[in-house]
Amino acid sequence: MQKWNKGLGLGSIFLVFILLMTACGGANGQNSNTPTKTDTASTEAPTAEPEKTTRIYNTVKGDVEIPVAPKRIIAEQYLQTILALGVKPVGASEYYIDNPYTKDLAAGIESTGDRSGTNLEKVTALEPDLIITATVDDNTYEQLSKIAPTVVIPFGTDAQFKGVHEEVKGIGELLGKQEEAEKWLAKYDDKISELRGKLEGVIAPTETFSIIESGGKTFYTFGDNFGRGGQAIYGALQLTPSEIIKNELMTAQWKELTLEVIPDYAADHVLLFSETGSDEFKKSNVWQSIPAVKNNQVYELPADRYWYFDPVSVLAQAEEITGMLLERNKK
User: Fold this and answer.
1) Residues 163, 279: one domain?
2) Residue 216's pLDDT is what?
3) Residues 318 and 247 reside in one and the same domain
C-alpha cells in the first residue's frame, strides 16, 4: 500500500508538469488567438486629424470661409469692439482710428480710407487675411472679397447686433475671443451698475430725457441706437425717454425738426449735440421758452466724442453723462 501511494504521487506530479508545459506551449503557439510580436508591430496607431485653420462663418452675403485665428485684420467697422477684445487690426477706417476714447489703443493702425470711401489699394497693400465691414454697397463688397475673406455685419439702424452685449459677444465669436468677450462684459456690467447707483436719488424715474442736435437752421432728435449719447442714456443708464421720443424715435431712430417744434421734443433734461458750434438758435424765444433751458438742465455734448456708439464709447459716455448730471445737481 505504501509503495502504491508513493508511485501515484510521482505520477501526479509528472502529469501536472506535462499539463503546465502544454499550456505554455499553447500560449505561445501559432494557433493561439493572442497576437504575436509580428501581429502587434503591424497594428498602426490612428492618424491624428490636422488642425483646422479655416471655418465657415454665416453672413448676410452668405457663407464665407474665414481664418480660425486671423492675424491681419482690416476693420472697416467695429474697430473699438475688436480693440476691447485685445486684438489690434493692421488697418481700419480713419474715422474709427480717430475715436478719442481709443486713441492710444489705435496707435499704429493704418488708415484704409475715410467715411467717403475705402482705399482699395491700401487695403491690398496691407495683405489682410480677414476684412470686417458694414458696407451696404455690393460693388465695394465684391472688390473687398477679392482681396481677402470679407465679413459684412450690418450696423446702425439695421444693426445685426442689438446693443452692447450682442455686439461684444458677436465680434468675440467671429474672432474666437469668446472668453475675452465675457470678461469685458462682466467689467462693463459692474461699471454700469455702479453709475446707475450714483444716479439713484439724484434723477427720479419720472424725469425724462431727449437729445437735440443743432445743425445750424436744421435740427434733429434721436432714439436709442443712433449715437449722440442715445445708447448711453437710454440703454446703459436706463434713463427715461419722453413720451414722444418713446413713440416716434425708438424705431425710426432719427427725425428732422424745425426750431418751432423743438419744444415738443425737449424733455425735462436735454442732451444738446452741436457739430457746427452755431449758438444763434439759443437766442431765440422758442429755445428760451423750453423748461429744460429755464431749469439749467441742458447738457452740451462735444461732437467729436458723441458721434460714436460702439461698446467702448457707450461706456465712456455713460461715465461722462453721469458726471454731468451729478455736477448739475450740486448747483
Assistant:
1) no
2) 75
3) yes
Tell me, yes or no, whether 206 and 171 share the same domain: no
* All residues at 6 or more sequence positions from 310 whose CB lies less than 8 Å from its CB, including other chains: 78, 79, 80, 81, 99, 167
Closest CA to 326 of 273, 266, 269, 243: 269
| Calpha distance 237→324 (Å, rounded) | 13
Mean pLDDT of the chain: 87
What is residue 48's predicted lDDT score, i.e. its pLDDT? 63
Do 239 and 270 lie in one domain? The reply is: yes
Q: How far, in Å, CA of 159 to CA of 190, rounded?
A: 25
pLDDT in tens, 17-52: 433 444 444 444 444 444 444 444 445 656 666 778
Could you identify the residue written with the cell 441742458? 298
* pLDDT tens column, 264-323: 999 999 999 987 667 889 999 999 999 999 999 999 999 889 999 999 999 999 999 999
Domain membership of residue 64 (yes or no) is yes
Q: What is the pLDDT of residue 159?
A: 87
CA 252 vs CA 164, 255, 312: distances in Å: 19, 8, 24
Q: 505520477: which residue's cell? A: 11
Residue 236: what are its φ and ψ, rounded to 5°? -70, -55
For residues 90 and 125, state if they share a domain: yes
**DSSP 8-state class, residue 322:** H
Distance CA 243, CA 125 (A): 51
What is the domain extent for residue 247? 201-330
How do residues 161-179 score in pLDDT, each as one tens digit? 989 999 999 999 999 999 9
Residue 11 placed within a domain: no
Looking at the fold, whether 117 and 215 belong to one and the same domain comes out as: no
Q: How far is CA 59 from CA 73, 85, 145, 149, 290, in A?
A: 17, 21, 13, 11, 46
Please check whether residue 6 lies inside any domain of the structure: no
- Is 221 inside a domain boundary? yes
Count up the domains in the chain and report the number. 2
- Do 247 and 306 reside in the same domain of the chain? yes
